[in-house]
Amino acid sequence: MGLFKFVKDAGASIFGGGDKPAEPPTRSFANHLRDHGIDPSAYQFNLSQGQLTVEGTAPDRDTREKIITILGNVKGVETVDDRLVLASAAGGPATAPGAPAQAATQGAEATPGDWQADTYTVQPGDTLGGIAKKLYGNASKYMVIFNANTPMLKDPNKIYPGQVLRIPPQS
User: Fold this and answer.
1) 139-151 in b/e burial notation, b at 16+ Cβ within 10 A?
2) Is the pTM here over 0.85, yes or no?
């Protein structure tokens, strides 16, 4: 759980062409998650003055991180207040046991152990290969970053400044 910062004026426009919702925001965020292959029925959303609060039970850490990243990369969202709990913490089965976790970085305020991945905010001129070279020392590891951000990323050549990406630990 924690408060994660994003770039308010960057990201997907899900409100019908502007920052003001053309439909109730809850429905827009639910549809956006559904468009990215995540069933939104277990989650509740509240958007107020650029801060999106998301609550519910995520099945595992990977899904939780993807939900926060997908929702944070929406135009008009400046921060995401992550109030998601993992199924294992809510009494469900543990689906991501024992993995060492790190706190998210680059503007994210989180409790250590909440995230397995770090985050990176795309800068003008960045490519996934360049980011992989900078963070892993090897440009050919760009697919590790791409795969960690699917289904949000659909093409490894299409990233934009201000987009926040999940960066998995080096293996």
Assistant:
1) eebbebbbebbee
2) no
